[in-house]
Amino acid sequence: MTSTVPASLFRTNGSSALQAVFLDMDGTLVDTEGFWWDAEVEVFADLGHRLDEAWRDVVVGGPMTRSAGYLIESTGADITLDELTVLLNEKFEQRIDRGVPMMPGAERLLAELARHSIPTALVSASHRRIIDRVLASLGRDRFTLTVAGDEVVRTKPHPEPYLTAARGVGADPALCAVIEDTATGVAAAEAAGCRVVAVPSVAPIAATPGRVVVRSLEEVDVPFLRTLISGI
Fold first, then answer.
1. Do residues 146 and 121 lie in contact, with contact meaning Cβ atoms separated by under 8 Å?
2. Residue 207: is it exposed, middle or buried by C-beta count within 10 angstroms (0-12/13-18/19+)?
3. 9, 89, 149, 171: which is deepest, by most CB within 10 A?
4. Phi then psi for 54, rounded to 5 degrees?
């Protein structure tokens, strides 16, 4: 896809060096994908509905509106999308307030990116109120900027979140590496023209040209990410 980021914002040093790294939040940096599903199960139980475990793969990684809308349609629950969004966010916040576990390798990778002074952005489909609570555990100073799902017109799988991140750090999307755990996030990053490292958390993701799949962040470091870009 052709980038919509103004060329004047790109770094134009003529090299193919890694310019920035963008990371998803839930399931990538913090082990919270299960938190969302638990919140959905609990809310719908309160409404008198039981969620099918098979639906978990459908809603994982998607924007709140898509996931919530799918569950309303699938269950026939008598609730509006706006009402459900409020309930889900409240249940999720209750869980993250009790502590947010980081994914294996996340702490080390963030520290390494900081040591190398590589611009780093957190790009999530979660709303700003959720991101800010998680950042209290992750550390705001670790990110050059953060992009929330309710701060863009079109969230993942649309490329807008990653194009927004590239614009924010003044980087060419083609020279940025994205780390994602879901097919929805991978689709967004690839549509933005970024190089992608997939770390599947719930559903499997296949490797393709331009996309590397690893088992955990423990396999990812700065030299590895630089190799992705230099191989273009």
1. yes
2. exposed
3. 171
4. -65, -25
The C-alpha atoms of residue 36 and residue 66 are separated, in whole angstroms, by: 14
Residue of 161, 185, 155, 157 lying closest to 173 (CA atoms): 161
Length of the chain: 232
**Are 210 and 173 contacting, i.e. CB atoms less than 8 angstroms apart?**
no
Q: Return the H-helix or E-strand segment holding 146.
A: strand 145-147
Tokens representing 91 are 């249940």
Taking CA atoms, 132 is separated from 25, 34, 39, 112, 147, in Å, by 11, 19, 19, 22, 11
What is the block-wise mean pLDDT of the chain (232 residues), using blocks of 10 residues?
34 70 95 87 96 87 81 95 92 87 96 97 93 90 96 95 98 97 95 97 87 96 94 67
CB 28 within 8 Å of CB 195:
no
Q: What is the pTM (predicted TM-score) of this model?
A: 0.80
Secondary structure (3-state) at 182: coil
Maximum separation of any 2 CA atoms in the chain, in Å: 59
